[in-house]
Every structure is written in C-alpha cells, then in structure tokens.
Amino acid sequence: MHPMVKPTLRRGWRDLNTVQFGMAPAHAMVLGPVDTATGSFLDLLDGTRGLPHLRDEGRGMGLPDGHVDALVERLARSGLLDDTTGGGPAADSLRKKKAVMDRLRPDLASLSLVAPAPGDAMKHLAARRSLHVQVRGAGRVGVVLASLLAGAGVGEVEVRDVGRVEPWDVAPGGLPAESIGERREEAARRAVRRAAPDRPPRPITETDELGLSLVILAPRDSLAVHAPDPVTAEPLITSGTPHLYAGVVEGTGVVGPLVLPGDTGCAGCLDRGRVDRDPTWPRLVAQWRSGPSRQVPACDLALATGVAGLAAGHALAFLDGRLPSSAGARWETSVPGFDWHAKPVWSHPACPCDAADKGKKGERAPDNGEPHETMAGQQSYAARLSGTWRAHV
Asked: What are the CA-CA distances from residue 203 to residues 133, 147, 158 (Å)?
C-alpha cells in the first residue's frame, strides 16, 4: 500500500490543531486534534512511499511507534485516504495507459470523493471498461449522453436508432454538422468513438444484448418521452435489464425513472398510475399517437445538454455501484426556469412487472443513495465510517 491523502480535497488549517479537508460542504471534513508533528507528517502521504518507508520517516520526526499505522487507519476509515497502487489487476493495467489516464484523471478525482476505501476510485474507474451500455435514440440527447459515457471510461457504448441525420439532430458534443444525411447509427458510432479515451468499442452483435449493464431509452419522439410505451420495455423487464429514461418533450427535460425490474416502478406502473389519477389519460395518449408527428421538436441545445448530463451522471452512479435518485422517480425541468424537481413513480399493483408485489413482501429495492451491486457484478461501496474525531462541514 502507498497511502495518499486524497489530493482533490484542498487542505486548510482552522486553528493550530484542526485541519479541514475540502472546500465544498458536500465532501469537506474537519479533523482534529492534530498535533504539529502529525500535521507535518501529512505532507508525506503523497502516494510515493510504502508503509515501511513511512514508519521510518515517522520515527525520524519523533512520532511514537504505532502512530503512523494508527493515523493511516483513521484517515482510511474517514474516507480521506487513497492507495496509488490499489484497485486490483484491472486498475494496474489501466495505470500503464498514461494517455488514457491523463484523459480520465478528472473522473478519477471525482470518484475518489465518493469511493471511501483506499484504491476504490481506481477500481471503479477500471471496472467501467468492462461495461456495456446501450443508448436507444440518436438525437440531441442520446448521442451527447452516449459520448459522455464513453468519455468517462465506459468500455462499450452502443447507440441504436433508425433513419438519417437531420439538421436539427446536430449538437455540440453529439452529432456534427458534417454527418447530416448519414445513417444515424453510423454517425453516432463515430461520435462515441471520438469521445472514448482509448480503443474504439468492438462491433456489437445481437447476442451481446444479453449482457447489457444498462439500457438508456432516449427517444427523439417527444411523445415517447412523455408517455413511454410499456410494450417497448417488456423485453427489458422480462430479461431483468436495468433501464433509464431520458429525453425532452415540449421544452421539458425528463430523466427517469431508472427501472430495476421487479424492484422499482416501470413504464407500465407510470401509465397505470396516470390512469388512476386521470381517467381521460388513455384517450389523450391515443390521440397523440394517431396525430401527426413530423414537427421539429422543442428541444433547445441548453435543455438537451442538461438532460444528457444529468442522465449520464445517474447512469454512471448506478454503474459504479450506487442507486441514484432517479430509481423510482422522474426528474423534470422546463425552460426557462430550469428548476429540477422529482416526481415519484410508484409501483402499481396491477402492473405485471411485480414490483408492487415484492414491495408488499418487504423485498424492495434499497432507498435512494444506498449501495447496491450492479448487473456487471461490481462490489458496492463500503459505507463511510464515522468517528469522534471527524465531522462533516
């Protein structure tokens, strides 16, 4: 182990015996008491020394035997310590790719804020390379979203859609202007490849769909965003594939729900809940689906990019082993206010997804924010340990 105080948290002394790590309240911590010698020793925890070397350095600074090990353990328990050699074989392999790591260092730094154990951040970053995500929809939201996932290190990001690129599909970070007239899938594949920090994804075959880590439904059709057809998601429910909805409808951005089949509310639950609240809902949907849909959607760049960014964040949180707040909820925002708010999607007792029946038995999904294990078999995050010497800012 080569301990390193997480460098992404800037350090400042509140007084002679109290040190604060980090500036932003969400992740900052105050630790104390810290004596002068221990405070000086913190500078040596930069990832370049192993524990035997650190013990020798500590003795030279007058620290008693066992003090270095106790300090390292306390820092690790508080989530402030990383290990520059940790994370396992996959992490070791990734470290050898300097150009790739240089691209991913901001993502690694962000992961270190939420991955408490030493080496966990690198472990999760390396694990992303083995994941397979499918994005269904190659419009302003879908391609930007797919590019964000690929740029964040997800190994295989596939985009599915039909037709050819229209001028209004073009977006910064998504489909470029020169792709107008090309097949959407081919243009999206190139965009994803450009965003990826290393090798392009291997060709996807039909049988690969059985091993999908996550499917993101980002339709260009605004009605499919507002009222997703439960029939479309039936194969995903049957196969137990987690899926997330994202898109824009008439100047309103939508992210969620993240559906964990059998555990959280799905598109069928959403539809049945709406019928319960508004008996005219089926009549409205039937009219919308039978009416013309050739108009250019109200999907401005700022809103589309915001939706893609939030959806990518929720997707990455799930893939890294956490349950985002879109599990069982839809986050919505509208122009011009951009005020995000969540609407719950309750499991419906009449829905064949069985999420409601599981809830009755007490076998529900974890509450938002609790660790879970992804379909890719990743280990969940360890819970942060609290102590009398540490307090969140």
From this structure: 13, 17, 9
